[in-house]
Amino acid sequence: MTASKTAIGRESGLSLQKQRQKAAFWFLAPMLIALFCVAAWPLLRTVWFSLTDTSLNNLYGGKWIGFDNYLRVQTLSNGTVRYKGTLVDPAWWNAVWNTVRFSVASVVCETILGLIVALVLNAEFKGRGFVRAAILIPWAIPTIVSAKMWAWMLNDQYGILNDMALNLGLISSKIAWTANSDTAMYAVLMVDIWKTTPFMALLCLAGLQMVPRDIYEAAKIDGINPVKVFFKITLPLIRPALMVAVIFRMLDALRIFDLIYVLTPNSASTKTMSVISRENLIEFDKFAYGSAQSTLLFAILAIFVSLYIWLGKVDLSGEGGK
Amino acid sequence: MTGNKLLKSVAFYALVVVIVLFSIFPFYYAIVTSFATGTALFEANYFPKAFDWANYKAVLGGATFPRNILNSVFVATTTVVLALFLAVTASYALARVRFRGRGLLLMTILAVSMFPQIAVLAGLFELITYLGLFNSPFALILSYTIFTLPFTVWVLTTFMRDLPVEIEEAAIVDGATPWIIITKVFLPLLWPALVTTGLLAFIGAWNEFLFALTFTSSEVTRTVPVAIALLSGASQQEIPWGPIMAASVIVTVPLIILVLIFQRKIVAGLTAGGVKG
Q: Rounded CA gap, A40 and B186, in Å?
């Protein structure tokens, strides 16, 4: 593809290449302007707000206060030193911990379950089309709807899951899944895994389908144990696809807001960075403080992605060294 | 030997049944609940006892929910049309024209689509109040561009890259300008890709919650997800599960039908870019 493209350039001279590049510029301009307005500019403003004492009702009345929203060292007259700001706020670190533990647990479970579902779908059996259609359903359901559906199924008194677990003898008394601080995170994880495993499974399946079938045939003839085939052949071959799927899901999990906001409102044991930032920004009238928290979330994500791409040598561009 | 084989296929089908049940049971149960009223609502019924449309009547006959549906349709459709319009030309440039910084630009676009939306919330809030769009559908159309536009550009670029180069060469030999190539040559070939991308972006916009919750403040301007999340009963304690489930079913069934009709294309769209490298 690349070779023939440069061939065009050579045959028709430089002017064509120039003309195309000029057209490309005008084709890209509207999109870039739109993205600047809705992404780059608001991001810069958020960072700016985080360095001021702006409040929600007076967006233009903020004064520059440096990094006080992040960390502020106060020396009182009697000599004691006090620290204030997000970086010493236990509620913030609780949210960071919640976000990390939620993201790691959900992505690990989704990857394993997604792989299992993908392996099933990669096998040939009757009704495969039906199963693939069925697993798309959780993916298609809006997050808010799934949060409400599961909130109802997890309801402490009338929920069907308590009923099932009681009948099966798994629990001895009804559990208030979403309200209880010990189980709230499990409830959130359950719903998230249910909702996003299909996405993982589809990405894994696409990776699996690119593995040539004759490799399996050869392994079968040689009498190699299927488990060994999976770990020694299949997994290394689909690793690039898996790495990309994991980073996409990880980024999604790290910014989670809607599911937690609806399923376990005001529960300190599930509150994530996004939830606490919005709470401060909009509800608690600590606009600048919330801006500082959302800036920190952005920074954490940016560092994480860079490290992941760098350490995992992931090729996201899809150009594959072309 | 054969016994072992039988056991294996029984285990395999058991796994298949578990996967299917796990996938569809919650939605099935929501449908069952949406038809239950009165005391039937507070029993754990695995099968529907009666088909009572009362919850649907309550939701659709309510003052605001039909309006919320219209809001969602308007916002999602407009966002998608705008994004596709901007993305077609941009993705042609990104897929077909060689220029310096193309790889960097593509990575930036991908990065924007992965943005934590909370990071732009404060800045967008300022922009939207400055433009006087607060509590209007246009606030949502503007803010949804942050995820629909990079996504459509990215997916259309991967589709456009796969179009055969010979077609373009022939058009260039005939003296076609890049604009003619896009509108007359590529667009007819891209229809399936546009439908897929548009549908995925539509689902994204339809389901969005954070911006919709923050940038609307009255019941009549809410979109469906916010309306469902904030649906409350006569008193604080009493959560109207029946109507909530009916509303959920109403907004989900069209999506599921669309997804099932276009499932092959959707799978192709979701995995585009992700694994093609």
A: 31
Domains along the sequence of chain B with CATH: 2-52 (no CATH), 64-271 (1.10.3720.10)
A 52-71 residues with CB below 8 A of B?
A: 59
CB contact under 8 A, A23 and B178: yes
Q: Count CB pairs under 8 A between chains A and B.
A: 307
**Residues whose CB is less than 8 angstroms from the CB of residue A117 and which lie 6 or more positions away in sequence, other chains included:** A135, A197, A198, A200, A201, A204, A205, B19
pLDDT class for B96, splitting at 50, 70, 90? confident
Condensed to tens digits (0 to 9), the pLDDT of residues B114-132 reads: 788 899 999 999 999 999 9
Q: Which helix (H) or strand (E) holds B249?
A: helix B241-261
Alpha-carbon span B64 to B223, nearest angstrom: 10
Locate the domains of chain A by residue range: 1-41, 90-312
In chain A, the residue whose alpha carbon lies closest to the alpha carbon of B28 is: A149
d(CA A204, CA B114): 20
The Cα B188–Cα A36 span in angstroms is 30
- A1-10, B125-134, B176-185, B259-268, range with greatest mean pLDDT: B125-134
Nearest chain A CA: its distance from B257 CA (Å): 9
Q: C-alpha angle with apex A150: A149 to A151, nearest 5 degrees?
A: 95
CA distance A195 to A143: 8
Q: What is the pLDDT of residues B133-179, one digit of tens each?
A: 999 999 999 999 998 999 899 888 888 888 888 888 888 888 888 88
Measured in angstroms, the CA of A194 and the nearest CA of chain B are apart by 7
Contacts of B46 in chain A (CB under 8 A): 160
Residue A82, H or E segment: strand A81-84
Could you report the per-residue pLDDT of A284-320, keeping only the tens digit for each?
888 888 999 999 999 999 898 888 888 877 766 554 4
Which of A152, A174, A285, A314 to mutate: most B Cβ within 10 Å?
Answer: A152
- Please report residues of B whose CB lies closer than 8 A to that of A15: none
Instruction: Please check whether residue A104 touches B, CB under 8 A.
Output: no
Domain A90-312 is found in CATH 1.10.3720.10? yes
Interface test with chain B among A149, A153, A260, by most B beta carbons within 10 Å: A149
